[in-house]
């Protein structure tokens, strides 16, 4: 074994070797004492974050690798997500793990290389929420045309609410505005904004539209409107939402999640309520168009009425009844003639049938000298002498009567 030496220690003594534990302890003290704080740049690889919340990864460049760890408390302060492929500059201390004879960098802070931490965090969060569909155009809802109750989540002392109310007073006085106070910058502002959005949905009577915003400021000032808790609260809000954050050049994730983005709080008032003056002008224009259309309709109806008055049914209304009366008379005469023709035809047919019946009638035969003899008791026609016997009463029918006799 070799023994560590320093200008202040004695030369190594082979007779008194160090144990592995002693050597590791001395090495740990030297290394950790020499690097109490160091800045290291490299690319993150082999990144993992178990349930404990601590981050384990490797920093590497083209020629070497360095194991690193970032405890959960330090990682929670980062403005961006650590992941494989991200190049960072990190500050930390060297930690020697004696039981394994290994060392690692304990990272206390990190910054992305190239992009700023806030910009990188914004891109990462936008990609994450975009994949979930929180910014999809299909989710956007239209604002009500004539809102009666408007909520505004903002600072009650900021310029945003004053500008909003001034424009609202000038454009439309038919709406109530309920200010839901919260901080709009600094630590904890995002949670207050999200809580204000949730509170707005429980207000009774229900709000018709909800505005969330503030005036302009630096990226850091507006950062709370990029926080995930605010974006998610806007995305799931049951009330149609308007994001009115910052000046025209500032775009936050809240702008992307809300149903409508207003460039400024002033424009938010213009987007939320109509202009009473414009509505009066529009109503006047529509009234003129309606009056003109009614006049044209009246003129057309009068012209048609004049045309109808010149037609025969209206010019001579009794002529139509006279024509109907003449028609009825003609029908009556035709019906009488038809009845007479039918009666004559049937009378002739009856006479013909009577002649045929008369020729076939037994009375006609009797008129020619014939007679009809019947048994007086039963009325049976006698056709043979064998049907009679002495003393039998018979009736003989002649053309002009009946003769009663007794067979002798």
Automatic annotation (TrEMBL):
GO cellular component: cytoplasm; exodeoxyribonuclease VII complex
Keyword RNA-binding: no
Subunit structure: Heterooligomer composed of large and small subunits.
Gene: xseA
Family label: Belongs to the XseA family.
GO molecular function, one term: nucleic acid binding
EC assignment: 3.1.11.6
Catalytic activity: Exonucleolytic cleavage in either 5'- to 3'- or 3'- to 5'-direction to yield nucleoside 5'-phosphates
Cellular location(s): Cytoplasm
Pfam families: Exonuc_VII_L (PF02601), tRNA_anti_2 (PF13742)
UniProt name for this protein: Exodeoxyribonuclease 7 large subunit
């Amino acid at each position: 074994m070799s023994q560590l030496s320093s200008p202040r220690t004695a030369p190594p003594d082979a007779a008194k070797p160090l144990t592995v534990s002693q050597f590791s302890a001395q090495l740990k003290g030297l290394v950790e004492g020499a690097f109490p704080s160091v800045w290291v740049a490299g690319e993150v690889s082999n990144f993992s974050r178990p349930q404990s919340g601590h981050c384990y990864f490797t920093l590497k460049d083209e020629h070497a690798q360095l194991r690193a760890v970032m405890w959960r408390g330090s990682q929670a302060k980062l403005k961006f997500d650590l992941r494989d492929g991200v190049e960072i500059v990190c500050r930390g201390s060297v930690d020697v793990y004696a039981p394994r004879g290994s060392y690692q960098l304990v990272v206390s802070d990190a910054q992305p290389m190239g992009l700023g931490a806030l910009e990188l965090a914004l891109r990462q969060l936008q990609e994450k929420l975009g994949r979930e569909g929180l910014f999809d155009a299909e989710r956007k809802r239209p604002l009500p045309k004539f809102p009666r109750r408007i909520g505004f989540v903002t600072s009650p002392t900021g310029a945003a609410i004053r500008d909003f109310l001034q424009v609202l007073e000038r454009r439309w006085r038919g709406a109530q505005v309920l200010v839901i106070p919260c901080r709009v910058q600094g630590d904890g502002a995002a949670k207050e904004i999200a809580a204000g959005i949730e509170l707005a949905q429980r207000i009774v009577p229900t709000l018709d539209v909800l505005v969330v915003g503030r005036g302009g400021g630096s990226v850091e000032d507006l950062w709370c409107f990029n926080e995930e808790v605010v974006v998610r609260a806007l995305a799931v809000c049951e009330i149609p939402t308007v994001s009115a954050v910052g000046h025209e050049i500032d775009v936050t994730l809240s702008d992307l999640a809300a149903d409508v983005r207003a460039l400024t709080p002033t424009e938010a008032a213009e987007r939320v309520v109509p202009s009473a003056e414009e509505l009066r002008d529009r109503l006047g224009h529509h009234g003129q168009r309606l009056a003109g259309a009614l006049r044209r309709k009246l003129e057309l109806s009068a012209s048609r009425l004049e045309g109808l008055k010149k037609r025969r049914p209206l010019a001579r209304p009794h002529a139509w009844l006279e024509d109907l009366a003449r028609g009825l008379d003609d029908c009556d005469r035709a019906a009488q003639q038809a009845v007479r023709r039918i009666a004559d035809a049937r009378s002739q047919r009856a006479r013909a049938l009577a002649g045929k019946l008369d020729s076939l009638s037994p009375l006609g035969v009797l008129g020619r000298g014939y007679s009809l003899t019947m048994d007086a008791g039963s009325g049976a026609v006698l056709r043979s002498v064998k049907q009679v016997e002495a003393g039998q009463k018979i009736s003989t029918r002649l053309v002009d009567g009946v003769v009663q006799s007794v067979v002798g």
